[in-house]
Specification:
Distance between the termini: 15 Å
CATH superfamily of the largest domain: YVTN repeat-like/Quinoprotein amine dehydrogenase
Shape: elongated
Number of strands: 40
CATH class of the largest domain: Mainly Beta
Number of helices: 2
Number of domains: 2
Strand content: over 45%
């Protein structure tokens, strides 16, 4: 026993000096409703953590869901109707850059800085999310993912300079296309025969043939890198957004430029067609969203409210709403036609999260000082019987899923024990300074806590 304690003490002395953020499995945000005043064209608002992408779907039940990734490897699913977060997915080991739903809303794809692409099955109105495939093959960050309209294929674009096309059913690589530059965006034509890409290091939009990976044509006109591409629903047009601050609309068959849409003052980072093909939305580093009329290239409206770059835009399946994700840590959903405020949801930032080995439990702790217990796959939250007086900085779950330890900025170490369906908690020790990390031994006998005071070990009670 002494040797075990000595070993853990030595190890814990090391983790005590490591910032808590380095030891987290993943982080996400917990929502709390808070009424606010808003611009008249904003109908829904949700703070998130540096959202680089947003995906919108309506599932078989008619539920509208919005997927939002975070820099901490998680993806959150929200109901559009009331803004409630129904699910948090511990998806990747690094930042999630991109999310996309299949056309029927039954599958969700995610791409990450960890170089992997994952496919998830979404059921029960977003309450049940289960892994289908982990797709490996890229050697660098995955910047974009897109499903084909028929759901048979998934394309992923990577900083490694390639686009990979995967068979959704088998998870096997169907095609690997070498672009030669870090690929930032990818889109399928509606018939699934073509792929469009935009890349860093080139001003060209490229269109590829899926069946043999050949380059069909290049579209020249932008003066800086192309950051986003999207096909119109009928496949006749292609929109591209560029760092040159413009949106271009191209005729796919001829490659001719139909419109050059100018109005943004900084780089255009995302483009999306409305489901009826009549409008193109663009999100820009100038913090705004523009909506353009396709037939004449006129600016219909400008949506203002974000305080940092708009990184992704997506229409709802019926075209009534437009979602925008921003570096200001928010997703906003706008009325695409008239605009009306519905509600605002604010959240306390979560600083740590842990998942039990069997995946049945997720525990999170954050700036609200509360440890939240989330049962999987239902996503139901079990109320906590104990809260800290300051931020919860670290969470750990025992191998059997029956104990949860937490360390707080209030200098305390907390331990919860499960009894039936309830969790009872108590303070089991205190440090002189904030507790940055906690860990439970595999035999459940020891709890190590790392603090800025350099003091470490805590023994679990029998």
């Amino acid at each position: 026993m002494q040797s075990t304690k000595a070993a853990i003490f030595k190890w814990s002395k090391q983790i005590a000096r490591v910032p808590a953020m380095m030891l987290l499995i993943t982080l996400f945000a917990a929502a709390m409703c808070m009424p606010q005043s808003f611009p008249p064209d904003l109908i829904w608002y949700q703070p998130v953590l540096d959202a680089r992408s947003v995906a919108y779907t309506r599932d078989a039940s008619g539920e509208e869901l919005i997927a939002v990734p975070s820099r901490y490897g998680t993806v959150s699913l929200y109901r559009r109707g009331d803004g409630v977060r129904v699910k948090v997915i511990a998806a990747h080991s690094d930042r999630v850059n991109t999310v996309a739903f299949s056309a029927d809303g039954s599958l969700l794809a995610t791409g990450s800085d960890d170089t992997t692409v994952k496919i998830w099955r979404v059921q029960d109105r977003g309450l049940s999310v289960t892994p289908v495939h982990t797709l490996q093959g890229h050697s660098s960050w995955v910047n974009a993912v897109a499903f084909s309209q028929n759901g048979q294929y998934l394309a992923s674009a990577s900083r490694d300079g390639t686009v990979r096309v995967w068979n959704v059913a088998s998870g096997e690589t169907v095609r690997s296309i070498a672009d030669g530059n870090p690929v930032t965006s990818v889109a399928f034509s509606p018939d699934g025969q073509l792929l469009a890409t935009g890349s860093e290091g080139t001003t060209l939009v490229k269109i590829w043939r899926l069946n043999d990976g050949s380059l069909v044509r290049t579209l020249s006109g932008h003066t800086l890198a192309v950051q986003s591409v999207a096909f119109s629903p009928d496949g006749q047009y292609l929109a591209s957004g560029s760092a040159d601050r413009t949106v271009r609309v191209w005729q796919v068959d001829s490659g001719d430029s139909l419109h050059t849409l100018s109005g943004h003052t900084l780089a255009v980072q995302s483009v999306a067609f409305s489901p009826d093909g009549q409008y193109v939305a663009s999100g820009s580093a100038d913090n705004t969203v523009h909506v353009w009329r396709v037939n004449d290239g006129s600016l219909v409206r400008t949506l203002s409210g974000h305080t940092l770059a708009v990184q992704s835009v997506a229409f709802s399946p019926d075209g009534q709403y437009l979602a925008s994700a921003s570096a200001d840590q928010s997703v906003r959903v706008w009325n695409a036609s008239s605009g009306a405020l519905a509600q605002r949801f604010s959240m306390d930032e979560v600083l740590s999260v842990a998942t039990s080995p069997d995946g049945a439990l997720v525990a999170s702790g954050g700036k609200d000082g509360v440890v939240h217990f989330w049962e999987q796959p239902s996503g139901a939250e079990t109320p906590s019987s104990l809260s800290a007086t300051d931020w919860m900085l670290s969470i750990a779950i025992s191998p059997d899923g029956q104990r949860i330890a937490a360390g707080s900025k209030d200098r305390s170490v907390y331990l919860w024990q499960k009894s039936g369906t309830l969790w009872s908690g108590r303070v089991i020790g205190a440090h002189a300074l904030q507790v940055n990390s906690v860990a439970l031994s595999s035999d459940n006998r020891l709890l190590a806590s790392g603090s800025e005071d350099g003091q470490i070990i805590k023994l679990l009670a029998p």
